[in-house]
């Protein structure tokens, strides 16, 4: 099993650089270099340090987060090297007193002595639990802090946002990411497409993301395409070959006209007898001639029920005569619940009246600034929508701007360290740790527990005391039916550990879906979810509080 999932370090595998060429060693805060210089100046730069990367609170008012961005971190560290141009820039901007010896030190840094342990990308994770543990020379690891936080913060936020949209939409619906034009710049657009896919979306409109990551592409046409046509005479090439290739219809336009007359006189359209917009009919006919196998039309340019849908049906029925099956329609405005129900009734009526099996089941896609709340409202109203195109609220993470990832020192030279604060949420959990997820008899995750690195691991069927890290009265015994150790080695440094192989994107997406299914429904719900328990072992709890008391200054009253 291990040989399939991991490789020995130094196996000669070449890891490509970060997807974004802007991700270089200079993509960091200046104080990382000032600290590195101060470490070097005092001779501390090679001291072995351990840092935890985690977040303090789950986003969007929820009780879970989807971890993403790990692959880009591994790519970054595997290719970490400062160029001469970058070192010259540091020389000119760090300090007038910066010594040449420090610049020589920077020239030699390549992260070959850095170890990275992480929870697999696509996992469901929780506040306070380390997503990454980074070990190495303190000056080097400090230089990784800002880029690691940057690469994980937005990625995990978008993946979580996507997972929340998937949860409210349901498993059966198709989710399409349409956010490129509203994203925060090119990098925001590319990243949002990738991480929305991890979080459970099915496809993207972003062509660049499709090429880079192999994400399925979806897209039809805009209102501009429809309104650019004036009449059917603009269509010059009217011929369309049958699906089976047996013959060619020389005048597809006439076939569409014939079907429009039939359905205008049919019982199906008796309550929508207005004359349709013929420029719209021309646009839909032209689009069907270009894409007869993938005809999905936008129908709200003029009037959905009086023009758009009847025109679409005429084109779809003409395509059916030639052996093609239209995909469906897209709604981008109006009362989406009501319109989708009316359109479904019309499709079913036409199927029955003209004896066309499957016509009533054609796809209805909705867009128009959708988000979690609007999809939830549509569910409560009742609708017939099969797919959602979601953009602005998804890719910008409109409901929450950032995840709040932090990177904290927990050990140096094998000595545990703790950061104290008046705000208990900001107190760190010291030392190098192991993390386990404990599952109950129903298969759901019950609790994550952190232990000291050298503590014996929990065992299936044996009772273990799980304690809140800081609240003395919050504790519970757990008898796990399954145990999963969460941290795995992705960069082995100079150790002899096995390195995990970075999985393809579709496997990360599949892991995310499987992980979400292992969560209890009350942890997942949109409103007032049950908090998931994150705990420490009894031994680690005692040590945290011993160190806390040892490091906190004692006041004196006079």
UniProtKB/TrEMBL annotation:
> Where's the Nicotinate phosphoribosyltransferase C-terminal domain?
432-543
Q: Which reaction is the catalytic activity of this chain?
A: 5-phospho-alpha-D-ribose 1-diphosphate + nicotinate + ATP + H2O = nicotinate beta-D-ribonucleotide + ADP + phosphate + diphosphate
EC category = ligase
Which UniProt keyword terms apply here?
Answer: Glycosyltransferase, Ligase, Magnesium, Manganese, Metal-binding, Phosphoprotein, Pyridine nucleotide biosynthesis, Transferase
Q: Where is the Nicotinate/nicotinamide phosphoribosyltransferase domain?
A: 197-428
User: In UniProt terms, what function does this protein have?
Assistant: Catalyzes the first step in the biosynthesis of NAD from nicotinic acid, the ATP-dependent synthesis of beta-nicotinate D-ribonucleotide from nicotinate and 5-phospho-D-ribose 1-phosphate. Helps prevent cellular oxidative stress via its role in NAD biosynthesis.
The protein, known as: Nicotinate phosphoribosyltransferase
Instruction: Decide whether keyword Kinase is in the record.
Output: no
One molecular function GO term is:
metal ion binding
- Could you tell me which species this protein originates from? Vigna unguiculata (Cowpea)
Under which pathway is this protein filed? Cofactor biosynthesis; NAD(+) biosynthesis; nicotinate D-ribonucleotide from nicotinate: step 1/1
User: Mind giving the lineage of the organism this protein is from?
Assistant: Eukaryota, Viridiplantae, Streptophyta, Embryophyta, Tracheophyta
